[in-house]
Amino acid sequence: MAPQTIIPTLHHLTSSQSHRILFMLEELHEAHGLDYHLHIYHRNNPTELSALRAVSPLGKSPVLTLDGPGAPSPFPQLPHHPALLAESRLILEWLHDTYGQGMYDPTNAADHRQDLFFREFAKATLAIKVLLTLAFEMTPAVAAVAGPVVAHWKKDLVPIYDLMEATLSEERPWFAGEQFGLADFNMIWGADVARARGYYDRERYPKVEGWYQRVVGRPAWKRAVEKGGAYNLVTFE
């Protein structure tokens, strides 16, 4: 990789979907020597959460800020935050486009279509069902009466996981197709929450379980867990 003049800083909230951004940063560091900074905000620390709100206009994580001479403005529609990237999918794509040297590009047209589909599916279908279930479970005001609603959302996950299981094969073991790619980075958050919280029957979906184990077995994932502070999708502590 050419000499790096712009250093990305990940503003990372513990036990959050920011973990997949840290995962990609570690992948890029391993493959291309990417340097980055990491600022950790602990979920249950009000002072640190206030500091995060000072960085992000929405007070959300992940947020990537860019430091260095000539740092670009990825989203010029946010003129008051010219060197800030927000939203997980956009951050993942920007990091890959900027530093990935094509390492996650699909190698054929069929994989390209599948990769695009599951990048969108990850948030528009999988994550929205998982997070609705999570919200009803974790919100004290409704948790006591949320049982039927949670059961409904879990039932809705069955055809989603059926599709995921049917997609994977020995020849194409990743949601990006033949090789690990952007779709897999996008899919892991919703899938990880659902798995950790028992939202589906693992034995019914052995290919999904195999995919999950391959993702979390990657050295970059393990380093991200070590560096990122707490990552507990059951208690979110």
From TrEMBL:
<dbReference type="InterPro" id="IPR036282">
    <property type="entry name" value="Glutathione-S-Trfase_C_sf"/>
</dbReference>
<dbReference type="GO" id="GO:0016740">
    <property type="term" value="F:transferase activity"/>
</dbReference>
<dbReference type="Pfam" id="PF13409">
    <property type="entry name" value="GST_N_2"/>
</dbReference>
<protein>
    <submittedName>
        <fullName>Glutathione S-transferase</fullName>
    </submittedName>
</protein>
<comment type="similarity">
    <text>Belongs to the GST superfamily.</text>
</comment>
<keyword id="KW-0808">Transferase</keyword>
<feature type="domain" description="GST C-terminal">
    <location>
        <begin position="81"/>
        <end position="236"/>
    </location>
</feature>
<dbReference type="InterPro" id="IPR036249">
    <property type="entry name" value="Thioredoxin-like_sf"/>
</dbReference>
<dbReference type="Pfam" id="PF13410">
    <property type="entry name" value="GST_C_2"/>
</dbReference>
<dbReference type="InterPro" id="IPR004045">
    <property type="entry name" value="Glutathione_S-Trfase_N"/>
</dbReference>
<dbReference type="InterPro" id="IPR040079">
    <property type="entry name" value="Glutathione_S-Trfase"/>
</dbReference>
<dbReference type="InterPro" id="IPR010987">
    <property type="entry name" value="Glutathione-S-Trfase_C-like"/>
</dbReference>
